[in-house]
């Protein structure tokens, strides 16, 4: 964005027959002498119209200097384009030379509506295959123009075909009250006749948002009420770098202003992400400073009544928290009448114990139980198994699908997804949710006098199961280690020693004295991914830096690694752990130590129990020999 359009050459031989599969109005109308233009101002009663490149589906001809597709909607409408096929020869990575399709939607200036001249700036350039084209294009206003250009070389690329429609832009209006004198600050208050729920959008949604903006969405509920925001769609700048280094980011604060604890930081593409405040106030702040803007976000808000009210009970029965996701698990799951169905809400208690029916006695046959956990704010649900003994299969198989089992479900991209399944008698490691909700489903078809079931300690935690360092409230998961407080210690991935949760980013900041450096010794490391640990391989990763920004000295670390060391160049070091929503691993454990810059690291001597006993026995033997010699000298 912001780059100037190239001068459009006069085309004396522009195609007359375009073999388009629809009728258009004002066909061939040139709004600029440099180009020929095809105008689309109606779908003629149909839901969508169609457009295509010349000669589609045959290869398009070379030397198409300037062909404009101009889509003009009514003043209260926006244009939506959807490519059903896309194949433009990609001669250069940036798509500005050779064959390309340029998109203009800041269509302004003198001349007819929707006109483009050599002074117009295009919004983006498209070329390549179907994967390179966006799922849809939306104009911010009532006009959108495509410029098709082909180079002198003939190739076998077939071009493009798509559909267009005109959408009422009022469907994407934010339901709050805009703050006077601001571009995109809104207030949402639960007062008077105002509704208890509504919608909010990023500026210009569903078109791309402008850059260099900051929008604040302030929510004020009644006392004892909560604010729930569900992000139905989030699409910010591309890439898989840390949220701390993103120019475009959504931050959610659990209070009235940015001094409140941060609940969430969103900087990627996701759907169905939910946040719930701990009190009656919530602040959502959207900042966009990148040159590669995305579509933005669409979200809903809901002022929830107090947990102990009749309205809250109705909400629970309607499954507003988990939605229709339960229905996919079968009819028994969506029912709340099961004798062993239990709900655990952090409003009642932050921790407790959960057991199978009749524990420690055997659970009865044909047992089917559901246990739902609901946190708030930045809370995560953590389960630690104290006892686990289910009926085992006779053949000793490790497959849990056809035997008594306990399954754990989390919420991923708006759907309920199984994260793990446990069976047999081995004690599972701790598990942690990726957000404030988690569900367990216990199926005990068989029983025996030995199958006593399970005992689990549950807790709603805000520290992600990280027990060392000082947690920063400015970020959902960030911890500080100062040499002034401790010159050495340990740190680990979230939920250690259990698998780390999905959709989680945690940062560890190490601050030494002026003459110190930071040495890290990783004693175990298993982070799901394949080198070079990028999004294309759906990799989680650990990243190191000598500064707050990216450090080219260090690459990303993922996969399984033996013990290794990492050392800073100065007195500051940053470690970033990031997981996606796909798979999980056991994470990492590490020892940190602040050293003088001139010192060399010396690994601490480790002795196992057998070697310690051997050394102790040897020392006792030497003492015994010395005593015998002393006795001999005294009495002989």
From TrEMBL:
Ranges of residues in domain CUB: 35-167, 184-304, 340-461, 477-595
Signal peptide span: 1-30
Top-level taxon of the source organism: Eukaryota
Keywords: Disulfide bond, Signal
Gene3D superfamilies in alphabetical order: Spermadhesin, CUB domain (2.60.120.290)
Protein name as catalogued: CUB domain-containing protein
Organism this protein belongs to: Loxostege sticticalis
Lineage: Eukaryota, Metazoa, Ecdysozoa, Arthropoda, Hexapoda
């Amino acid at each position: 964005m912001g780059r100037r359009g190239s001068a459009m050459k006069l085309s004396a031989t522009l195609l007359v027959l375009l073999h388009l599969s629809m009728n258009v109005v004002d066909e061939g109308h040139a709004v600029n002498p440099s180009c020929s233009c095809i105008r689309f101002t109606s779908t003629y009663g149909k839901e969508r119209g169609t457009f295509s490149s010349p000669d589609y589906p045959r290869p398009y001809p070379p030397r198409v200097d300037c062909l404009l597709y101009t889509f003009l909607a009514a003043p209260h409408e926006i244009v939506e384009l959807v490519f059903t096929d896309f194949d433009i020869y990609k001669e250069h990575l940036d798509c500005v030379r050779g064959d390309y399709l340029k998109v203009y939607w800041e269509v302004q200036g003198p001349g007819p509506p929707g006109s483009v001249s050599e002074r117009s700036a295009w919004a983006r350039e498209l070329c390549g295959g179907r994967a390179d084209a966006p799922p849809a294009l939306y104009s911010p206003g009532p006009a959108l123009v495509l410029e098709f250009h082909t180079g002198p070389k003939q190739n076998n690329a077939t071009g493009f075909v798509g559909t267009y429609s005109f959408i009422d832009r009022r469907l994407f209006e934010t339901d709050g009250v805009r703050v006077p004198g601001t571009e995109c600050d809104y207030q949402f208050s639960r007062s008077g006749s105002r509704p208890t729920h509504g919608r909010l959008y990023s500026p210009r949604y569903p078109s791309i948002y402008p850059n260099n903006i900051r929008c604040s969405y302030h929510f004020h509920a009644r006392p004892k009420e909560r604010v729930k925001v569900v992000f139905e769609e989030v699409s910010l700048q591309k890439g898989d770098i840390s949220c701390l280094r993103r120019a475009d980011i959504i931050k959610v604060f659990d209070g009235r202003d940015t001094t409140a604890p941060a609940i969430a930081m969103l900087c990627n593409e996701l759907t169905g992400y939910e946040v719930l405040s701990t009190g009656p106030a919530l602040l959502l702040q959207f900042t966009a400073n990148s040159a590669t803007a995305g579509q933005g976000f669409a979200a809903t808000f809901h002022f929830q009544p107090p947990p102990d009210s009749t309205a809250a009970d109705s909400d629970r029965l309607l499954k507003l928290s988990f939605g229709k996701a339960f229905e996919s698990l079968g009819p028994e799951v969506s029912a709340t009448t099961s004798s062993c169905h239990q709900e655990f809400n952090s409003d009642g208690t932050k921790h407790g114990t959960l057991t199978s029916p009749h524990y420690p006695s055997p659970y009865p046959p044909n047992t089917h139980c559901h246990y739902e956990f609901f946190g708030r704010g930045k809370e995560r649900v953590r389960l630690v198994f104290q006892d686990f003994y289910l009926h085992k299969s006779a053949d000793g198989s490790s497959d849990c699908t056809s035997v008594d089992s306990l399954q754990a479900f989390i919420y991923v991209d708006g759907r309920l997804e199984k994260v793990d399944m446990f069976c047999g008698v081995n004690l599972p490691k701790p598990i942690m949710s990726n957000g404030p909700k988690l569900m367990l489903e216990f199926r005990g078809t068989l029983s025996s006098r030995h199958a006593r079931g399970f005992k689990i300690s549950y807790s709603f935690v805000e520290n992600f199961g990280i027990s060392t360092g000082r947690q920063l409230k400015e970020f959902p998961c960030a911890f500080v280690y100062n040499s002034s407080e401790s010159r050495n210690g340990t740190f680990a991935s979230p939920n250690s020693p259990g698998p780390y949760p999905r959709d989680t980013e945690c940062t560890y900041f190490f601050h030494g004295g002026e003459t110190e450096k930071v040495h890290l010794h990783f004693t175990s490391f298993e982070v799901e991914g394949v080198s070079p640990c990028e999004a294309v391989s759906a990799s989680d990763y650990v990243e190191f830096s000598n500064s707050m920004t990216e450090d080219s000295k260090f690459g990303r670390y993922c996969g399984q690694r033996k013990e290794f060391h990492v050392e800073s160049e100065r007195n500051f070091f940053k470690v970033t752990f990031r997981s996606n929503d796909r798979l999980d691993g056991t994470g990492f454990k590490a020892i940190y130590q602040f050293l003088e810059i001139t010192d060399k690291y010396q690994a601490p001597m480790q002795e196992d129990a057998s070697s310690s006993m051997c050394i102790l026995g040897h020392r006792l033997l030497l003492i015994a020999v010395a005593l015998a010699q002393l006795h001999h000298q005294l009495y002989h």
